[in-house]
Amino acid sequence: MTDDLRDWRSTVDLAATESLAHICLFSENLVWGDWIESPDSELERRFARRVPVCPQCGRQRKALRPRPHVRREVRARNRQPPALTPDVIGGRVAVELLYRGFSPRSTNEVAGPALLATLDKRSIHNNLAQEWLDHFLHAGWIEARWLVGRGGNRLEAVILRDTNALLSWWLTGLEYQFLRVSISAGLGRGADGEIK
Ligand SMILES: [Zn+2]
Fold first, then answer.
1. DSSP class of 148
2. Helices 112-121 and 88-102, packing angle to 10 deg
3. Whole-prediction pTM value?
4. What's the gap in Å between 29 CA and the centre of ligand 1?
5. What distance in angstroms lies between residue 147's CA and the mean position of ligand 1's atoms?
6. What is the tens place of the pLDDT at every residue in 106-161?
7. Same domain for 65 and 28?
């Protein structure tokens, strides 16, 4: 038996149904588990496995051992908008998300690697960017999906859930900065620009 034939045989299985027997032709699907609470935070998460499923009858091919997780998704259990006003870094992360979220060709998914690479070019390193993404995650404005596996975790996508809330938060940052500048200019406040 050639390797090709052996491969083909391994992906074909007989399904005996009462009315009609057919040959299951499996194709790999991501199959998500239920959302579960994270014990250590206000987030909940779910995991996906890659499972061969027959599109005709929905049957999953049996596995000898549990299939490994290949994706993890995280979302807020209770929305908690950030207590912080946007600083320069938080503002830039928000703008990048909004720019992608409002572009005409956009879906609600932003590719993680491209987002992190763009922010990195603007001197916002990945761990700093992820800190802000974490704030937005807790706010329920975004959800996030990671690739999981032997290579570790990598951000695959950010899923935009409430771009309007993100936009108004970003705008409060602009107003705050405008206020700081006007007050310190108008009243001759200290060079630190603090609103007293
Ligand atoms: Zn089938």
1. -
2. 140
3. 0.75
4. 14
5. 29
6. 778 999 999 999 999 999 999 999 999 999 999 999 999 999 987 778 999 999 99
7. yes
